Amino acid sequence: MNALSAKAAALSFAALISCSSVTFAAEPPAGASSCSGCHAANTAVETPVPKINGRSADDIMTAMAAFRAGSKPATVMNRIAKGYTDDELKPIAAWLAAQK
Fold first, then answer.
1. pLDDT mean over 50-63
2. What is the CATH number for 36?
3. 3: helix, coil or strand?
């Protein structure tokens, strides 16, 4: 590759990375990947379990607190929620909210 081609390739790559329409999902925090066992990440999947990707972190934290307290009806989420502290849930909720 000549110097001009290498420079053009580098500029193209830099433009791609700085483009606001291109997003790269960060690695999920510990515990977050287990959510996809029930909550489908793909919007085309039909399931009675609500999708949580893209929901606000506050909504996720509120729901988890309600599951933990027993004030929100659940089949298994009440038991799952009790296994996480708020400090463990905050990065999970933020990561899920960032998934579009």
1. 96
2. 1.10.760.10
3. helix
